Amino acid sequence: MPEVIRNIFEDYVKDKFDLLDCIAVNNGTSALIAPFWSMDLQPGDEVITTPFTFIATSNAILIAGGKPVFVDIDPDTLLIDSDKIEAAITEKTKAIAPVHLYGRVCDMKKINKIAEKYGLIVVEDTAQAFGATTPCGKFAGMMSDVGTFSFYKTKNISTFEGGMICIPKESKLDPVKVRAICNQGQIGKYNHVYLGFNFRLAEPLCLMAYEQMKLHMEGIKAELGLRGPDKGHYPEVVYNQPIYKKMNISGNCPIAENATAKIKKLMEDKNV
Predict the structure, then answer these.
(1) 153-200: per-residue pLDDT in tens?
(2) CB 80 within 8 A of CB 107
(3) Cβ(11)–Cβ(3) under 8 Å?
(4) Which 8-state DSSP code applies to residue 142?
């Protein structure tokens, strides 16, 4: 299948959301790795994020050479507490990675203001919130330097495996570099400028995503409503995972720990 299908899909999303660039990739983890990789993180460089997320968020930071710094969550929204971010910033902080969850959107206005004050990059992990909007109508993943998305089988737009990187026009990232990293570092055929990866989304899957993307969002929501409530949950904060303990990666986020414990008990009580 010709590469033109990928171009059509990417151009459609770019035009629909008025983006600087859109890059279709093979999964949501790759979508996270590429922007962090483009930042040329050095040993000790820190990225602030939430412990209440899938481990791919912090794994991407580690793979790109950074160190995840965990900030506790808001007990009402279960999203990163924007009021606690500034206190976690050090001279080593390079980025903030808020995670939108369950259709809820982080306080991007406050997060972007903090990032601007300290000259930080903001990477929105939007794997769990495609199509979510703020009260003023702004889309999750389109409000900072870059938004990353997943098209995994559990998502409302699914190619079984797949993902997407959305770079808004105001981004501080280099879109050419991010795109090159997703294609073995190439700028022009066989001209490898960066150390990169094969993150390309296969053309048949681009077609699947394109056809779904064209559906009216209300239609998608109606279809999801027929499936019943989602039972997916995070049973543990990421820094308590065995691999992170082995790597001496830790955190101090009691609200997040309490939330995971409550959710885990609820699931056990309901035999889910």
Answers:
(1) 888 788 899 999 999 999 999 999 999 999 999 999 999 999 999 999
(2) no
(3) no
(4) S
Question: What is the rounded CA–CA span in Å between residue 15 and residue 52?
Answer: 32
Rounded CA-CA distance 197/23 in Å is 13
Nearest 5°: the CA angle 229, 231, 237 is 140
The answer to whether 196 and 182 have CB atoms below 8 angstroms apart is: yes
Pick the CATH number of 4-226 from 3.40.640.10, 3.30.470.10, 3.40.50.10490, 3.30.70.100: 3.40.640.10
What DSSP state is assigned to residue 36?
H
231 — alpha (psi -120 to 50), left (phi > 0) or beta? alpha
Model pLDDT for residues 12-49, shown as the tens digit of each residue = 999 999 999 999 999 999 999 999 999 999 999 999 99
Q: Characterise 126 by phi-psi region: left (phi > 0), alpha (psi -120 to 50), beta (else).
A: alpha
Pick the closest to residue 125 from 206, 213, 55, 220 (CA basis).
Answer: 55
Question: Measured on CA atoms in the order 124, 127, 128, 130, is the torsion positive or negative?
Answer: positive
pLDDT of residue 229: 46
Q: Where are the domains of the chain?
A: 4-226
Task: Report the chain's terminal Cα–Cα distance, integer Å.
Answer: 42
Phi, psi angle pair for 187, to nearest 5° = -125, 100
